[in-house]
Design brief:
homodimer, alpha/beta, 13 helices
């Protein structure tokens, strides 16, 4: 099945510049981009023609770190740091997801918001609960979204209701892996973070990851107190990243680590060597007083970086708002580093929000030939006046001052999603 | 005329706590708050009863620093620092306001957005142009908004189209003062900043301010290069604040200075002594790579602080977004200061956004007896789920995750504004 989208097509092939195709045609076959043409002699009769003239067509947003179960907690408890915030707000909310009815209500609203915000691919934490995790995967699949979903694993240092038996935790994770059969919504191994996982649990999860070639996600060096705590728990291991590495959860299969604020040069080098992605969560890092990730350094080392909304440490699923906060944070880091770590440019961060994070999936986040046709139609007419703006100025205006109402349609593999 | 508003009434009398009156009655006489009652035996027959049960009722937002003429530039040019940004984007846009038709289109849209965002009082820069400034004052007055509006004064270091003759600049400013007769929309003396004002201009404006008892607004220490430039221009004067003070524009009449990032302790002391307000523009300070204002220090010194959206250095007129960014910035300042400058709390920043900035007006930003009944009706039903949230959690959720669609109605002096 062939589809042709017409409009002002913008995407990033590499971080340093935009590819701008004004008034052009995006040719899609079987949900995958074939090519972009500036001119078409005529529209072939055997294809569906979608005329979005004067609208922006951009890749769907990619969010590589978020906690779906914290959706109802958005905007609450923003006066605490990581560890007390987890204990006061987050863990009690997550405990509710043992109740499948509660999970259904919360996850249904979450999925609607994800679509409304234009996030077509995401890497998600659910909770420790197998049933509600599988329910979430089903809801995402029915909504036609692309996602990795991780049942959280925790067998120490959490509240009683969330503390798992080590073997059960591994067994239930395996059951989810074996039962999943969607092409777009797949499982991911999710040890929450070192403090809440015993060595036995981490080793068991590593075996699963390797046996079934399933990717891994976790948290790394978000907060100085957390880093100290990890050092106390594993005094014999040289640093936080090496704990994951020692127990087989650091690039043995495709891996993404969230936050990475207080990571040493040695750890960043290890990430590069093992192909580990970093999920940059600028908004959450502000809200939880965590700090500012030195993203420029990661880029200089050649580490893959994508964006994470990290709800509900982050207070919105909006990736455009994450783009703005990421640029702002990088400017403050520039000042803080005595102007050594140069601020991130608009194209660099747009790349992270699309192709950068999309690399964790396959062929996602760009309009190069062979990429999945996941795209957003942006109607920015309410943001324009009688000044003349070029396509890139329009994109910047939309990201900085538009909102979800500007998203006219969302497509995954060229299929229009219900909104 | 008596009006009674019923709902969940929240405001701040002081920065450290909220006054919460659930399911209560706000009694207003002739546009001014008389009292809040928890119970009413009956509704008097001679008054208008406005039943907003289950809605939040909060003071209208106060924005004490913004550039109305930059409204169309929102979201553009976010890759530059202050001085190049002014020359590339801002000054060329401001030059267009010589054309009254352009001004009418731009300012009409600006005023609509101000109402939609719930900002009922604001302190505004227009441009150097007398006619379009008076047009803006008229549009604000007709919209029933409360504002100070300043024709900008510049007689050096700007582009030719914006560089005024010193005497004409003073004369036109006086003409605006003499012609203004609104109770809600008043003139304010507006030397743009030291680099663009000669000594003669500043002295002339000071005389006007004192002669007519008109307040003053300007910029102070926004960017390190700007501070250096001022030092080069006035090597004989000890610091930036003292330049304004020497030429009679620093508290001789009511004064507000925007940004105040790189201000010395001596300058902060001078602000306190002269009763000069600080306008904190967190979003703009991020976007223009300016830095983070040490707000806690100003509060410790007892300086009055309000919030400024500072469009289009700031990328939105939304004061809720300014509240969020202000808290975020203060958390980064806390880390940067080795945890000496304690983060700002939600109530402290809500206070700045209402009563703190409102103090620059008279009796604005609170629901204490005698305050102007400027208020917003917030319908937050779409943000709630079947968890039970108290009024303060609902307010925090609205500020952190709501938007202008949650503002159901806007009142100034108890009169409903058109939206």
């Amino acid at each position: 099945m062939k589809k042709i989208f017409k409009g002002d097509i913008i995407y990033t092939k590499n971080p340093n510049s935009f590819e701008v195709n004004k008034d052009s045609y995006l040719i899609v076959e079987d949900g995958v981009v074939k090519e972009i043409c500036r001119y078409l002699e005529s529209i072939p009769s055997d294809c569906e023609y979608l005329d979005y003239t004067n609208k922006l067509i951009i890749p769907g947003f990619v969010d590589i770190h978020l906690h779906s179960s914290q959706f109802f907690n958005i905007g609450l408890g923003m006066d605490k740091e990581l560890i007390p915030w987890l204990n006061t707000y987050t863990f009690p909310e997550e405990a509710k997801f043992r109740d499948l009815e509660y999970a259904k209500t919360a996850y249904s609203k979450f999925v609607i918001d994800l679509v409304n915000k234009g996030t077509t691919s995401s890497v998600i934490y659910s909770t420790i609960h197998k049933e509600s995790t599988m329910l979430l995967m089903d809801l995402l699949d029915k909504a036609n979204l692309r996602a990795y979903v991780g049942k959280v694993n925790m067998d120490r240092n959490t509240i009683d209701e969330l503390c798992e038996n080590t073997n059960d935790s591994i067994k239930e994770t395996e059951e989810i892996i074996l039962s999943s059969n969607s092409n777009r919504v797949k499982p991911i191994i999710t040890p929450r973070f070192v403090p809440s996982c015993s060595k036995e649990l981490m080793e068991g999860l590593s075996k699963l990851a390797i046996k079934y070639n399933v990717p891994v996600q976790s948290h790394l060096s978000e907060n100085t107190n957390e880093v100290k705590w990890v050092k106390e728990l594993h005094p014999d291991i040289e640093n936080y990243a090496s704990v994951y590495n020692k127990f087989g959860l650091f690039g043995q299969t495709k891996t993404v680590m969230a936050h990475c604020i207080y990571t040493s040069d040695e750890e960043i080098e290890l990430m590069k060597k093992k192909g580990v992605f970093a999920a940059h969560c600028a908004i959450s890092n502000f809200n939880l007083s965590s700090g500012i990730m030195p993203v420029r350094k990661y880029l200089d080392y050649g580490v893959d970086v994508g964006l994470g909304s990290d709800i509900s440490g982050g207070n919105t699923l909006s990736i455009p708002q994450s783009i703005v906060s990421t640029i702002q944070a990088s400017k403050m880091k520039w000042l803080e580093s005595n102007k050594k770590l140069y601020p991130l440019s608009f194209s660099e961060v747009f790349y992270m929000a699309t192709k950068g994070g999309g690399k964790f999936f396959e062929n996602v986040g760009s309009f190069e030939s062979g990429y999945n046709a996941d795209l957003l139609i942006i109607d920015d007419s309410n943001l324009l006046d009688f000044n003349k703006f070029d396509c890139l100025e329009r994109l910047q205006k939309y990201i900085y001052s538009g909102n979800e109402n500007n998203i006219k349609a969302v497509y995954v593999n060229a299929n229009k999603l219900n909104r």
